[in-house]
Amino acid sequence: MWGSRPTADQLLDARVAAGWTPVPTDTRDGPVVMGHACKLPRP
Is the pTM higher than 0.70? Predict the structure, then answer.
């Protein structure tokens, strides 16, 4: 699928294009999307 090692941004873009959406984690401050997916705009 990849000609070279993909970047974290490329992997995230591919997942979103395939229909994946991040699942927020419940924290004391409320639901938070963690990890590299936190770069996605919030709905």
Answer: yes
